[in-house]
Amino acid sequence: MDDPMLSSSSSSSSSTQLNQPPPTPLAVQPETPARHIERMLNVNHHHRSPSRTIYSDRFIPSRSGSNFGLFDIKSPTNSQSDETSSAYTTLLRAALFGPDTAGVIPPATPDRRGLMNPPNQNIFRFKSETRRSMHSLLPFGFDDDVVTGVHHSPVKTPRKVPRSPYKVLDAPALQDDFYLNLVDWSSHNVLAVGLGNCVYLWNACSSKVTKLCDLGTDDSVCSVGWAQRGTHLAVGTGNGKVQIWDASRCKRVRTMEGHRLRIGALAWSSSMLSSGSRDKSILQRDIRAQEDFVSKLSGHKSEVCGLKWSYDNRELASGGNDNRLFVWNQHSTQPVLKYCEHTAAVKAIAWSPHLHGLLASGGGTADRCIRFWNTTTNSHLSCMDTGSQVCNLVWSKNVNELVSTHGYSQNQIIVWRYPTMSKLATLTGHTYRVLYLAISPDGQTIVTGAGDETLRFWNVFPSPKSQNTGSEIGASCLGRTIIR
Known about the structure:
Blueprint: H1 4-7, H2 11-18, H3 33-41, H4 81-97, H5 144-148, E1 167-170, E2 183-185, E3 190-195, E4 198-203, E5 209-214, E6 221-226, E7 232-237, E8 242-246, E9 251-256, E10 263-269, E11 272-277, E12 282-286, E13 295-297, E14 304-309, E15 315-320, E16 325-329, E17 337-339, E18 346-351, E19 358-363, E20 369-374, E21 379-385, E22 390-395, E23 401-406, E24 413-417, E25 422-427, E26 434-439, E27 445-450, E28 454-459, E29 479-482
C-alpha cells in the first residue's frame, strides 16, 4: 500500500517538491542484518513536521510521554537523551537478536530538540510496584544472563542429614575401651559385634541375630574384621590369638598365634591379614600359608590400636598409643613414612577412596585433631582441631566427605565436607564415647557404638549416582531391638 505519510501532503508542498533538483546519486550499499537492525531501531528518530499529520496502522507510544519515575529512571533531558537512547537500544538489540549483537555501537541519536514537549499526564498511574531493573522490562522473559553474557550456575541446595538414628540396637557388654575395635560391617551386609567374650552377627536385611562364637570365661573379644570379599571373619582375642571363622557355616577355620598380648586392631588386604597388638608389633599373616605369620613389623613403642590398608592394597597405615602414625609398604619390615605431629594416641585412620595416597588420621584426648597426609609426596596437608577426642574416621565411598566420631568431651558424630572441612551435620545421642564405627556396603549408612551399650544407625551419605533405589537398610527397620 502507499505510505500515508506521503499521500497526505498539501498542493503547495507538492509543487515545491517537483521543482527540487534531482537527488545526488548515492552508492548502493547492500542491506546487511546489522544495518537492517539499526534502521528498524531508529525509525522514530526523524524530525517531525508540526504542519504534517502522521498516520500509522499501529500504535507506537512516544517515549516522551512515559512516566520514567515508575521505573526509577530519571526523565531524559537534552543532556541525557543520547545516553538513555543508547542504553535502551543496546538492551532491546540484545533481547531481540541475542547477546552477541549487544556490543554493536548504535548510530548517534539525532537531535531531539524539535520534539514536542512531553505531556503532563502520566501513562501509568500506579507507583507502588516493586522496583525492577531495566533487564526485567525486556520482552520474552530475558534475564541478566542474556544481556551480560554471564551464565550463573544454579544455587545448590545443601544436603540435609537426618539428625536422629533410624535404628537403635541394644548391645549389652559392649566395652568402653578406646583401644579396641569391636564393630565391622561386611560386604554381604552383615554386622559383626564383639560383646564380652562372644561375637554376634546381625543381618541388616532380615534383622536376624546369630551368635557366632563364645571364647569362654578366660578370654575376651578385642577386635573383629571382615575379609574384603566372602564370609570370613577374623577375631582378635585378649590372649593374643587370631581366629578365622566362616560366618556362613558358623565354623572356625583356623587359629593363628604370634602375639603375646591382646590384639586390638585387624586389617585385611586380599588374602593377607594384619594384626596389631599391645605387644607393640604388627604381624602379617597369609591365611593360605601354613605359618601363623609371614613377617613382623616393628616400630611402634606402645600398643598398636589402628590399622588400615589403602584401597589399592599397597600401603598399610598404623597408629599407636605412642602418638605415632606409620606407613608401611607390602614388603617392608620398617616404616617407610613416619608422622609424629599428633600429641595423643592415633586410633582413627582412614584412606580416601577418591584420591590415591590421601590419608586421614585423628588423635586422642590431648590432641583432638584430624590431620591429612599425602603419602605419595610425603607431605602434611592440613589439620583440623575438632575440640574433642577423635575415636574413628571413615570416608564416604560416594561423595568426597568423611565422618568422625568423638569421645571426651562431647561424644558427637560429625559429617565433614572435604577439602574445606566444613561441617555438614553434627549428630548426638550417645551418652558415652563413640568408640566404634563402621559403614554399610552401599556407602550410605554408618553404625556407631559406644560404652552406653547401644548401636545406632544413621543415614549420612547420599547414594551412588548409578544407584536409583534406596538402601536395603532403611526406614522399614525403625525401632529399637536387642542384638542378643
